[in-house]
Amino acid sequence: MTAVKTAFDEGAQTYDRARRQLIPCFDDFYGTALALIPHQPQATFRVLDLGAGTGMLSSLVAKKFAQTRITLLDISQEMLDKAKERFAGMEERLEFIAGDYANGLEGQFDVILSALSIHHLTDTQKIKLFKNIHNALPEGGIFINADQILGPTPDIEQVYQETWLRQARDLGVSEVDLNAALERMQADRMAPLSSQLEWLRQAGFSSVHCWYQQFRFAVFSGQKGKGCTNLPT
Ligand SMILES: C[S@@+](CC[C@H](N)C(=O)[O-])C[C@H]1O[C@@H](n2cnc3c(N)ncnc32)[C@H](O)[C@@H]1O
User: Fold this and answer.
1) Which of 44, 102, 196, 207 is 20 to 30 A away from residue 124, measured at CA?
2) Is the ipTM of this complex over 0.95?
């Protein structure tokens, strides 16, 4: 995990500026994750954002759900420091924890979500994390993961990678930001979507489903208990 921490500590200052180019489907990707949260805008509930980084996803949650308490967990203190700047004035609703979620989770949450982070774990660590997430949720609680996935075959993986590079360049990403992203991606441990959905089922989740995919980018979830409780219809 040291390589991941170092990569994000070093990239924290410039991380935000190329997000919309590096995630060509930005609005649908984050928007789907947000739409899956099974609560009314005025509801009070607890959210844990795994690998929250500079708070991109948490900020969307905080804006849509004005009463939530959000815990931002990240291994990089530098990324969390940028998140603190983003949330200046809202601190009473937020908790910032510097730590490695592969080492276990503390506390109970109604919604656990993550964006572009869990692909840094090995498969064994992902399987363990999914179990720990299930344990940290109440009945009806939901886990939502918006992440990069590995192509299920080498030729499909090549299409994912080439499509991503072309789309990012078409959107005008600078070579500096693209190279920084490619450098960070050296530490990626992506897994195919089908494996991850199976690991969620094995961890005890129901209604395990991928709700959105655009080549490399997928949004999938599982609920604890009966499943599809209060999901948007
Ligand atoms: C690509 S950034 C995504 C940040 C944010 N979720 C977003 O959507 O912009 C990945 C983040 O995950 C964090 N991260 C990676 N592995 C982690 C781990 N095992 N424990 C905690 N944070 C981790 C990194 O430090 C980094 O801030």
Assistant:
1) 207
2) yes
Mean pLDDT of the 98-102 span: 98
Q: How many residues does the chain have?
A: 233
Q: Which ligand 1 atom is the nearest neighbour of the CA of 30?
A: 8
Query: What is the spatial distance between Cα 88 and Cα 200, in angstroms, rounded to a whole number?
Result: 35
Alpha carbon separation from 220 to 30, 143, 167, 178, 195 (Å, rounded): 12, 8, 22, 26, 12
Q: Which of 6, 22, 74, 96 to mutate to test the pocket of ligand 1 (most atoms within 8 A of CB)?
A: 74
Out of 3.30.200.20, 3.40.50.150, 3.65.10.10, 3.40.50.300, the CATH code matching 2-223 is: 3.40.50.150
Task: State how beta strands 142-148 and 206-214 pair.
Answer: unpaired
CB atoms within 10 A of CB 44: 11
The count of C-alpha atoms lying within 13 angstroms of the C-alpha of 55, restricted to the half-sphere facing its C-beta, is: 23
Pocket (CB within 6 angstroms of ligand 1): 1, 4, 8, 51-53, 56-57, 73-76, 79, 100-102, 115-117, 120
